[in-house]
Amino acid sequence: DGGRTTYAVIPTLTEAPPCRRTTQSSTEPTC
Questions:
Q1: Alpha carbon of 6 to those of 3, 11, 17, 23: distances in Å?
Q2: Residues 6+ positions from 5 with CB-CB distance below 8 Å
Q3: Residue 14 phi/psi, 5° resolution?
Q4: Which 8-state DSSP code applies to residue 29?
Q5: From CA 23, how far away is CA 1, in angstroms rounded?
Q6: Could you give the number of structural domains in the chain?
Q7: Could you tell me if residue 31 is inside a domain?
Q8: What is the C-alpha radius of gyration for the chain, rounded to an integer number of angstroms?
Q9: Contact 5, 13 (CB under 8 A)
Q10: With contact defined as beta carbons under 8 Å apart, do 18 and 30 qualify?
Q11: If you write DSSP's letter for every residue of 1-31 in order, what string do you get?
Q12: Handedness of CA 7, 12, 13, 18 (dihedral sign)
């Protein structure tokens, strides 16, 4: 349970910052 929850949180947090940064930098959402 703990391993699965951590794995789901890692990808979500790692893909969240880049998505917002690209939108503010290029105005083009890469999500």
A1: 5, 9, 17, 26
A2: none
A3: -75, -30
A4: -
A5: 34
A6: 1
A7: no
A8: 12
A9: no
A10: yes
A11: -HHHHHHHHHHHHHHHHHHHHHHHHHS----
A12: positive
Residue 15 lies in a domain: yes
pLDDT in tens, 1-31: 566 666 666 665 555 555 555 556 666 655 5
- Token pair of 19, please? 């998505």
Which token pair is 29? 């959402």
Q: Note whether residue 14 is domain-resident.
A: yes
Q: Can you give the residue range of the structural domain that contains 4?
A: 1-26
Residue 30 and residue 23: Cα distance in Å, rounded?
A: 8
Domain assignment present for residue 13? The answer is: yes
**pTM for this one?**
0.13
